[in-house]
Structure formats: C-alpha cells, structure tokens
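Annex B. Sample input.
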Amino acid sequence: MKKFTTVKTFANNSTIEERRFLFEVVGIANQESNNLDYSIRNSGSSFIAVPYARMNQEMNRINRLGGKIIKITPMGINTPIPANSLSDSSDVTPNPEPMTQAKSHKSVKVPVNIYRPNNPFVGKCLENYELVAEGGSGTVRHLTFDLSGGDLHYLEGQSIGIIPPGTDDKGKPNKLRLYSIASTRHGDRLDGKTVSLCVRQLEYKNEAGETVKGVCSSYLCSLDMGADIAITGPVGKEMLLPQEEDATIIMLATGTGIAPFRAFLWRMFKEREKNPDYQFKGLAWLIFGIPYTENILYKEDLEKMAAEYPDNFRLTYAISREQSTADGGKVYVQSRVSEYADEMFELIQKPNTHVYMCGLKGMEPPISETFTAEAEKRGMKWDEMRKQMKKEERWHVEVY
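Annex B, continued. Sample output.
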C-alpha cells in the first residue's frame, strides 16, 4: 500500500492552492538537473504538485530531462499524493528567461520570414490536382512546390506567401496572398524539400452581376507543372501544433481550412516513422464542415486514419446540404459543437486540450455563439474561458 502525505499550502493564498495539478511522471533519467534541489528517479512514477501558473514551464522542464507526463490530475487544498513524490515544483527556482511561443513548443525555434517579398524564393510546381470529386461544388486544388536549392523550411500550422505575377488595376505589382501550409515539415515527398497548399478557386458575382475570379487563386489553380512560383515566408505562430504527445487536439474546419489540420494529422499518424521524437498518443478530433460529400477534401486518407487509429483519431463531418439537425435545419460545424457540447466542454477544461479553428471568417461568429450558449447552460462564461485558453496558448484561430 502506498503511503500518502498532504501537500503543503501557500500561506494566505488558497486560490492558488486550489489551482494546482498533480503531474505523474515516468522515464526521467538521472542527470544533472536544472536548478533542482531534489534527486531524480529513473524508474517508476514520480509525482510533482504544479501551480497552475507554472504548468507550461514545468512541462517543458520535464521534456528537457527526458521524462514523460502520463497523467495530470486537478488538485484541491488537501489532495493527498504519494509519499515518494518529488518536491513541489513551486520550490524550484524559476527559469528567468521569459516564456515565448517557441518555448511552449519544446523550445523549437520557429522559422519566420526566411524569404521576404523583396527577395522571394523561386520554386517550381511539382503537382497540381483536383480534390473535389465529380458532382461537388467548386474547384479545390492540391499543389506541391519544390523547395530544393533554397532554405525555406517550416513547421505544421504555418503559412507561406504566394506572389502572383502581373499587376493590379492600378498598375502596381500584385501583392502576395497568404495560404496555410497543408504538408508537414517533411513535405509530401518526405524529403524536407517540398511544401503543399490546398487552394480553392475564388469566384463570385459582383454588384453588377459580373463573375469575378480571385487573382491568386486563379493563378494557382491553373498553374502548370514545372512552372516557377515566387514564395515568401514562412509566417505564423498562432496555429502551431503542441509537441506534447498526449495532448487533445480539437480541430474545427470548413473547406480549405482543412489545410493546417492535414499537416497535423499527417504528422500524428501518417509519418510516425519520420518522427521518432513525436509519437502521438493523445486524441485528435476533427469536425469538418463541407456542403456535399463530394467536397470532403482528402476523404480517403482521413477515413483510413480514423479506421486505423480509432482510439486516437475521431472524424466528424458536418455536411450542410445533405445532413439535417433534429429540428430540420442544416448541419454546420457549430451544429456539431452543440451536439457534442458535453464531451467538448469536459475536454476543454483539461490543461492539455487545444482547440483550433480554421476556415472562412464567416465560421467564427456562429461557432462563438454556440460555445457561448452551451457554456451558459452549464453555468460557465465562454468569453472568460476563451480568454483564459488564449492566455494558456490553447485557443487557436485562423480565419480569412
């Protein structure tokens, strides 16, 4: 039988004490520690009581020491923990270096603006094929560009800029457009020398009833294989994938908003042999909104991964023109959020759950309204929850 002791309290600060979490850690190797005042175990479980405000820093420290967090449990004032627990992490001398976005990703350096608009990288188009099945709505192309001969590298969740040739209606060179990267850092050919995009042909009617086509999307969708293309970037830290292997990743996507999530899922499940330092063991849940079944981008790959990893990947479609809600309405992403609200809110309250949203700007307001309404049903305030998640780098939105 394990012996238990009670974690000491902070004097005159019960609020902080109540917002502690118990980390159960395995696999920390004996080595010189970073400002630690206790011995380190190399087998079995160790337990560390972690103040809420230090959770990210403690996760990073454990990762640096080669350990793995197998369980995180919320604590109260008198929560007992095993007597063989490590010292309370609040006794550890804090790292004086301020936290940054990169620090929250295992201190991986995030590449930014390797190539700028005044000096872009010129790559070549390696492939350009249709993603929408026959009978679907619109045109969406998957494009892959050759990066060999340059130093353009990136992380999952970042974007690149594309500079279309020609001039605008004022005679000035066309400005770049940003597109979310749809491939992992290894690229679709797994050699680290390509980058892929998922691009929808923009087409709409103006006030005069004339058909207008997007400048850059038209250029990309009709790009010939072998053609040169001017690329800038990469940019973006908002949508980076956390490196914790046991994280819960909730992804809300519409249309080509699937792009960064394709990169996430390929890294998690399709490229495991390429990522010995990242073996995803958590839960990835994709809620994908499209108008028709024929518009499910990367359908075969998504459903294959869902079948092969049923405990780790959950795939939910919201097909607006084919599915109906209980009251006969169309099914959108926000409909699924409401349908699975109990599960989702339970997951969101866990410290290692991240929520991502990517797609057209129009998706954000109704989803936000749905979260607000569902939170109110549970006596919660969504705006406060969202702000706290944003502060903890667990709420990620990229709409365009």
